[in-house]
Specification:
The complex is a heterodimer of chains A (about 475) and B (about 180).
Chain A lengths: L18 H13 L4 H27 L14 H12 L2 H11 L5 H26 L26 H34 L2 H10 L7 H34 L11 H27 L8 H32 L2 H12 L3 H13 L7 H4 L2 H28 L14 H24 L5 H11 L10 H18 L1
Helix pairs in contact in A: 1-16, 2-15, 3-5, 3-9, 3-14, 4-5, 4-8, 5-6, 5-15, 6-7, 6-8, 8-9, 9-10, 9-14, 10-11, 10-12, 11-12, 12-14
Chain B lengths: L6 E7 L2 H13 L6 E3 L7 H5 L6 H27 L12 H27 L20 E6 L5 H14 L3 E6 L1
The chains are: A mainly alpha (about 475), B alpha+beta (about 180).
């Protein structure tokens, strides 16, 4: 069968779509009244936002003593949750930036939603260190400006301050990248709307017209922002890992932490993208845009990064044994067989053993398996951070100060609350903006639509379109 | 400039390939295209429209360099002259420890600078009223526009003939 583009290309847009049909399908969820499922989930998310607000007010009012941290275990659920959320916040920029540089077309189906997810996950992550400060109104003193205390500055040599810079930069650059990509799509919604809706979208689409020069600049901006975001996304989790790796605590003081944290972040981020995409494509009826091919591609990333994480876990153990240093060896013995052994084995099972199922093509292409596995990985990656943080601290330098830790209802509520905040933001996003990048999908239609490539490609039609499609593929390299 | 109203003659095409061949025809006939509007970035449009490569990325470099220099010099000044403090017995001017913040600031300045420049040079900002010729341009129509404010009747006829010949689905006139 003669195909207009290379047969290795997957069909990424199904259902014989025209440009207009793409606009219709992707914009209509923002124009219709919300479905019953949406309302139910939104009400649930709002309830959890309420729980979050309550836990925060309680923490600030009563003080940080309402958490179960003690002198030995001074980082518990708070920093565990912080690192977990930051990790989840890595997939969006990875998909939109690194996959853009690698010219992976399947990113167009999922990038917009994944970027939004990144932003919401970073918002959730930020809550934990900020409220862990205790006197939260002092949070502004982390920003280096000459203040009323005299010319006293922040410590620029501290990884905790690097974190402030890394995460705030990551957040603001992600917002820019996401919003700039969204502007043409908001203009599409604007041009379909009337009355007050039109006025609002007029405001938010910044007067976009689709002029050729504007598109050229837009492409140039997107490419450079992608180039900037690629090292940025890698730097953020590297710097988060420095919070641990530059300390002198056995079990934290390891050089493997930066790459291991980055791989883990990509792993957990993709798992969360899968969780959201599997639901989104069903509820918003986007199965023709977020296809099984997209899901399979992401599952491949999951099996790769899951295996990298597994190798890192084993390397850690090996190096601890090989070092011949008994305190390092004890730290890792404690990690595996200590009081929190169940979290170590939970982590090993969820992150290393279970993703290996994705070597099977039929499991990779099964929506139910994908959803189940994504939840498992989300749990496993939470365990990983728990294993690193409280387990290591629980057995510190002096056996007389060894301790155990379990969270109070305040810490549990705050964590569940941030999940509510995350879903609340995501659900609002699905109502106001297209969750799939409209213009980008149109741009790849002729090289990824099922009427042009794949087994369903129209033969009669094929000749007329084969030439431009091939040309286009060549131009894009 | 903005207050002046223009008379614009525009044609809508259904496909980007039709649009591209129409632009080539227009170039051959030395027609002065005002602007081209598309629902998504059409590859291969820039050379035939004679658009020069955007210089935005050069500005990105400049902003990034400013960010890097600012972060490095600020930390140097603070730690060596404004308020020197010894942290863990390290020298005041502990350059390797400055790398993460210098990097983050480079990215921050470059990204914000470029984005603000992009919106400024495109004349896009919250509250700017879009000069839309046709609502379907952001949906599925590809548009070529000519400024015919001062064009004599014959030229307009000629342009309408051009649109018909190149297969435009619709031809309209709009004041803007």
């Amino acid at each position: 069968m003669s195909q207009p583009v290379a047969p290795v290309r997957h069909v990424l847009i199904e259902g014989n779509k025209s440009y207009h049909q793409i606009t219709e399908d992707l914009c209509s969820p923002t124009e219709k009244a919300p479905s019953r499922e949406w309302i139910v989930v939104f009400a649930l998310a709002t309830a959890f936002v309420g729980l979050y607000v309550f836990a925060i007010v309680w923490t600030v009012w009563k003080g940080i003593g309402t958490w179960n941290l003690n002198r030995t275990i001074n980082w518990g659920w708070d920093i565990t949750n912080f690192v977990w959320w930051i990790g989840i916040g890595h997939a969006g920029t990875l998909i939109s930036a690194i996959l853009l540089l690698f010219r992976q077309r399947w990113r167009t189906g999922v990038n917009r939603a994944a970027e939004a997810m990144t932003i919401f996950a970073v918002i959730c992550a930020g809550q934990f260190p900020i409220f862990h400060m205790g006197r939260v109104w002092m949070a502004m003193f982390t920003i280096p400006f000459p203040n009323t205390r005299g010319p006293l500055w922040t410590n620029f040599n501290s990884p905790l301050l690097w974190d402030i810079f890394a995460i705030s930069t990551y957040f603001s650059v992600s917002v820019l990248f996401w919003y700039t990509g969204l502007v043409p799509d908001l203009a599409t919604i604007r041009d379909r709307a009337s009355g007050f809706r039109r006025k609002m979208y007029d405001l938010f689409s910044f007067g976009w017209t689709g002029s050729a020069k504007h598109w050229q600049r837009h492409e140039s901006l997107s490419l450079v922002l992608a180039g900037l975001s690629t090292p940025l996304v890698l730097s953020v989790h590297t710097i988060v890992s420095f919070d641990f790796a530059t300390s002198v605590i056995p079990g934290w003081h390891t050089t493997i932490f930066p790459p291991y944290f980055v791989a883990g972040a990509v792993f957990s981020g993709f798992a969360m993208v899968q969780t959201l995409m599997v639901i989104t494509r069903k509820v918003l009826n986007l199965k023709e845009y977020i296809t099984i091919n997209h899901i399979e591609s992401m599952n491949k990333v999951i099996v790769l990064t899951g295996t990298i994480v597994g190798v890192a876990y084993l390397t850690e153990l090996f190096v601890a044994w090989y070092s011949g240093y008994i305190y390092e060896q004890f730290a890792f013995y404690n990690r595996v067989f200590g009081p929190y052994w169940w979290s170590y084995f939970g982590m090993m099972f969820c992150n290393v053993v279970s993703p290996q199922l994705f070597w099977s093509r039929s499991i990779r292409r099964s929506v139910w398996w994908t959803f189940f596995m994504s939840i498992l990985i989300n749990i496993g990656m939470w365990f990983e951070r728990f294993v690193i943080i409280p387990t290591t601290l629980a057995r510190d330098f002096l056996p007389s100060s060894w301790s155990l830790y379990s969270p109070t209802w305040v810490e549990i509520s705050m964590f569940l609350g941030t999940i509510g905040v995350f879903f609340f933001c995501y659900l609002v996003f699905t109502r106001v903006a297209p969750v799939v990048a409209v213009a980008e999908v149109k741009a790849i239609l002729k090289v990824a639509g099922d009427q042009y490539i794949g087994p369903k490609a129209k033969k009669a039609h094929g000749h007329a379109h084969s030439e431009p499609a091939t040309k286009k593929a060549e131009e894009e390299g | 400039m903005a207050a002046q109203s223009k008379k614009v003659l525009y044609g809508l095409y259904n496909d980007e390939e039709e649009l591209k061949s129409a632009i080539k025809t227009a170039n051959a006939q030395h027609l002065d295209i005002m602007d081209v509007f598309t629902p998504f970035p059409v590859h291969g449009l820039d050379p035939i429209l004679g658009l020069k490569e955007s210089r935005l990325h050069i500005m990105g470099f400049v902003y990034g360099a400013i960010g890097a220099l600012f972060a490095f010099l600020a930390m140097t000044w603070i730690f060596t002259s404004d308020w020197p403090i010894v942290f863990g017995g390290k020298p005041y001017w502990s350059v390797p420890a400055f790398i993460p913040i210098v990097f983050e600031n480079t990215v921050l300045y470059s990204a914000w600078g470029m984005t603000i420049t992009f919106y400024t040079v495109c004349g896009m900002w919250p509250g700017v009223k879009a000069k839309t010729l046709d609502n379907r341009i952001t949906d599925d129509k590809f548009c070529i526009a000519f400024d015919v404010s001062d064009a004599p009747e014959g030229d307009v006829k000629n342009l309408q003939g051009f649109f018909t010949k190149t297969g435009a689905a619709e031809v309209n006139v709009k004041m803007m």
